[in-house]
Amino acid sequence: MFRTLVALAALSSALACPDHTPPSSALGRRADENADEHPAEATWTFADQAAWAVDNPICSTGTMQSPINLSGAFSKVYAPTFKYDNLAIGTLSNWGYGPSYSLNGTADAPTFTTNGTTYYLLGFHTHTPSDHTINGKSAPAELHLVHGDASGAAKGVLGFPLVVGAEESEFFAQILGPTGAPNVTSNLLLDNHEMDMRKALTDSGNFKKYWTYRGSLTTPPCTEGKRWWVSGQSLTVSQEQMAELLLISEDSARDVQKIQAHGVGEL
């Protein structure tokens, strides 16, 4: 696998949560640490989520804000049919809170289709602890696979709660380890990093059980109109993998939002 280390500034759209095409203000913790040099970039933190609405009112006034608590029967609508056979090729980095990956483009990207619409994989990133809660309980971490249309505009996200299990995750084995994602203070990128995205599905029961709803980005600008699918079966990682993931992550979970016009499990 050919990989090149490049400077963080060379990548214009790799860091995101969960859009994978954010402005520089979405760099979160890294931007805040550079506030003295670039005060306009220090706009939000996870520690002061109430302040998000100052620049982005929808963060507090929206009716389809994510994440939410999920419970009850699994959804039966918008069932995804996956075409994840193609290897993903993109850039692996750390968005300041944990591993992040952005594909080089949508031309040969893994996809899934539902209700006649095709969603192209744009990238993925992690949150610790989980954004969503299930039956009122959070998981140690959550994986977000961000998908969009062919132009690269984010349209939907697959969420996977991460828990510790007996077996090592083949998916996370691709991004952890000595040559894997850097830590939260690193500006290094691993370019042309290949990923077999099918492993995320096989590590979590092939997405047979899920909830789906109308939601939003889980960080500013909190844009609504994003379709969410959250796996009803957690993706399991080994104890060693979870420890390593937490070592290169920082707390990045948004508070659970009130369920309003989300239409959980509805068309």
UniProtKB/TrEMBL annotation:
Q: Which residues form a coiled coil?
A: none
Query: Where are stretches of biased composition, namely Basic and acidic residues?
Result: 29-39
MF terms from GO for this chain are:
carbonate dehydratase activity; zinc ion binding
**PROSITE patterns (alphabetical):** ALPHA_CA_2, PROKAR_LIPOPROTEIN
Disordered: annotated segments:
19-39
Q: Does the keyword Signal apply?
A: yes
Please spell out the taxonomic lineage of the organism that makes this protein: Eukaryota, Fungi, Dikarya, Ascomycota, Pezizomycotina
Signal peptide range in chain numbering: 1-16
Protein name per Swiss-Prot or TrEMBL:
Alpha-carbonic anhydrase domain-containing protein
Q: Which UniProt keywords apply?
A: Signal
Alpha-carbonic anhydrase domain: residues covered: 42-267
From which organism does this entry originate? Answer: Cadophora malorum
Q: Which InterPro entries match?
A: Alpha_CA_prokaryot-like (IPR041891), CA_dom (IPR001148), CA_dom_sf (IPR036398), Carbonic_anhydrase_a-class (IPR023561)
